[in-house]
Amino acid sequence: MNGRIFAGKVTSNDWIFEERSGDPDYWKKRMLSLCREFIFLQMIDNPNIIRLEEIIRTRSNYYCVLEYANGGSLQRLLNAKKRFSEKAAKECIKQIIAGCSALFHLHIMHRDMKLDNILIHFPDRPDNVKIDPKEVDLDNERFVVKIADLGYAREFKARTQTGEMRNDRAFSFKGSPLMMPAEQIQTYWGRGSGYSHKIDVWAIGVIFYQ
């Protein structure tokens, strides 16, 4: 594609149709999750959310061609640098909130917001040169933070029979336990009344603390 570098995500039919003990319809849930991710990425056009370039389907796999973020994940960067300056942390959070707001505008909750699923791109650096995270200077370099991996995402509003939009609470246990608020964990144990898109706001707070 004109010499550009892209990222790729491969999902095999074997994974989709892998049998799960006690749940003969589990493949339907995996297919629904995959279709949701493709649809949501096609709906979104925001610099702080990873862009979908193309979907390729073969007899054995689904190939998702994505925008390439040359800095990798924020988790990788934080592991290398140990800590960010206040200035860099504020800029990262500002961009994460901008991306999350774009999702909320489309009534989408991410459900797995964490540093591993947030990528960073340095537009002034070439894509074909590997970046050493220890040499990155977030205080003096331009960067763009991008939310990625919408595999657990879902809509949080549903249309009623009268055509009105209402909040549609989620009950499934999706995401990373250490990033979850109490109402999401309580739902897993059957003690809660579901959760809303506000779980993503909680996760952003945890990211800021990290």
From TrEMBL:
GO cellular component, one term: autophagosome
PROSITE patterns in alphabetical order: PROTEIN_KINASE_DOM (PS50011), PROTEIN_KINASE_ST (PS00108)
UniProt-listed Pfam families: Pkinase (PF00069)
Organism: Favella ehrenbergii
GO MF annotations in UniProt: ATP binding; protein serine/threonine kinase activity
Ranges for domain Protein kinase: 1-210
Name listed for the protein in its UniProt record: Protein kinase domain-containing protein
SMART domains: S_TKc
GO biological process: one example: autophagosome assembly
UniProt keyword terms in alphabetical order: ATP-binding, Kinase, Nucleotide-binding, Transferase
